[in-house]
Design brief:
With about 300 residues, the protein is mostly helical. Helix content is about 55%, strand content about 0%.
């Protein structure tokens, strides 16, 4: 089947509102809607308008308003900010543990030694990523190190402070199986295969948040593995592990080690109270989720 050539023109904000009205959407404050659409593209808001439409139809449900879609947009934005704050703590902890453990096992330049990794080509690609990240860095410690030493890389604790979370995740993923890899995972109460999968999943969610993309009712393209057992209490495994509930539970599990006094659950419940019309079932939250140990 031959592909079509897209040639639809851009339409003005006033025309966008007229189109939405023709599909049955109501506006409580049209002048405010114009202002919002001048600053938040309709394309970005489409995902928040979708739950207000009839299934497989362009028509909106009776009583659906533009303001309801904007409410979902604001909820999602606040949720992503909350998640980013917690992922920062987890990321910093994993940087620290990876550097500590591997430096003890294989020296402070362990990451530059291909013998520590399962795939030489993957290792070479990771080193190129690190080199690019170091080249872009204007960190004072990195600059000073380059002025005083001719090593290809600074030591692990310095190099990994400027690496991306994605590079960090891939470094762990391609480590050779062994005591050091298991020791890192054990620090978080996990088997190393689950650690690898969960780390990959939270990096993916972190990237969604960093790019301000819709998260709240998204079905994630990465499916985090289900553990047979965990050292600390986890949740009953939901029927759909590609929804936000499961990955939020993974984040909470890491926080049990990284920040045992985290107030994330309380803040999340307060956010749900603020946006009481949000459907948590669309996020994958099962009945009785609040009675789960992690969510109490």
């Amino acid at each position: 089947m031959a592909l079509q050539y897209y040639n639809q023109p851009q339409i003005a904000v006033e025309e966008q509102i007229h189109l939405l009205k023709s599909e049955g959407l109501l506006f409580e404050n049209e002048s405010r809607a114009i202002h919002l659409l001048q600053n938040i593209s309709l394309f970005r808001l489409k995902s928040y308008l979708k739950p207000l439409r009839h299934n497989n139809s362009r028509l909106f449900k009776t009583g659906a308003t533009f303001e309801q879609a904007y409410m979902l947009y604001k909820f999602d934005s606040e949720l992503r900010k909350m998640i980013c704050s917690e992922l920062e703590k987890i990321e910093i902890s994993i940087r620290t543990q990876l550097s500590f453990t591997m430096a003890d096992a294989a020296g402070v330049f362990w990451f530059a030694d291909a013998s520590n990794f399962r795939d030489a080509n993957r290792h070479a690609s990771l080193l190129r990523c690190l080199q690019e990240e170091l080249h872009r860095s204007d960190d004072d410690a990195i600059i000073q190190f380059r002025q005083n030493y001719d090593n290809p890389f600074p030591p692990t604790w310095m190099t990994f402070e400027i690496s991306s979370f994605g590079t960090l995740s891939m470094m762990y993923r391609w480590l050779k199986a062994g005591h050091a890899r298991r020791k890192i995972a054990k620090f978080y109460g996990l088997p190393d295969t689950i650690m690898e999968s969960w780390l990959h999943s939270i990096v993916y969610v972190r990237n969604i948040c960093a790019h301000h993309s819709r998260l709240w009712n998204r079905r994630l393209s990465i499916n985090a593995l289900v553990p047979r057992r965990t050292h600390l209490p986890f949740v009953n495994i939901p029927s759909d592990t590609k929804r936000v509930y499961y990955v939020l539970s993974i984040i909470l599990y890491f926080l049990r080690t990284v920040n045992p006094n985290s107030t994330f659950v309380a803040r999340f419940k307060a956010l749900l109270s603020k946006y009481s019309s949000v459907d948590v079932a669309a996020m994958g939250f099962p009945n009785g989720w609040q009675s789960q140990v992690l969510w109490r």
